Amino acid sequence: MKSVLYHGYEPNTDIVEESDDIKSFLDSIKYSIGDKVLLVGDIGNLGKRLRMCGAYVTILEHKDYQDVCPSLVNNENCTVVKGSLEYMPFNDNFFDKVIVLDHFNHTSNCRKASIEIRRVLKEKGEVILEDRNLKNLKVKLIYFKHRLLGESINYNYPHQIFKLFSSLNFEGSIKEIEDERYIYIGKAK
User: pLDDT: is 53 or 184 the higher one?
Assistant: First the structure.
């Protein structure tokens, strides 16, 4: 199953999606003209779409960033910055929204990454996190494959994500999608 946010969600418009639950959940994500949005992970052309809605978009590319990367090619008029979720090169309270798609599980230290997300978000800023759900057997096998290959990844169950962000003073909710993916939306208090 592909990312619900990336493939099926157009900001501030109706969603074309089979599930009414997913539609009502994602409908709560709104963007305003002038919002500062940070995108991380498998973002496709989401940055371009958000720019068309009037948001200022910054894309955080991992350490393997090249001068010509897919994020830059697919998202013209967005700022691309090299860095990692664990050590973000941004000022405190800078972004209105942080959107992480298919990437949070691939950080070596999820606690440090979540602390950094909290640091760069403004008061009442939102974090939107979508990733694979470890409850699914196929996802567990992928996780074990990555671990056997020596990759430093840390998949989390949805309840662990909820608990992690709650401990950082986020008020949020989790939506599981067919036990293969989950979406966490949290607002900084």
Answer: 184
Count Cβ atoms within 10 A of the Cβ of residue 124 and give its class: 0-12 exposed, 13-18 middle, 19 or more buried: exposed
Its pTM stands at 0.81
Looking at domain 4-188, which CATH architecture does it have?
A: 3-Layer(aba) Sandwich (3.40)
- What one-letter code names the amino acid at 154? N
pLDDT, tens only, 105-121: 888 888 999 999 999 99
Q: Which residue's entry shows tokens 């997913």?
A: 22
The answer to whether 5 and 43 are in contact (CB under 8 A) is: no
Whether 95 contacts 124, CB under 8 Å? no
Task: Count the helices and strands in the chain (H runs, E runs).
Answer: 7, 7
Domain chopping of the chain, boundaries:
4-188
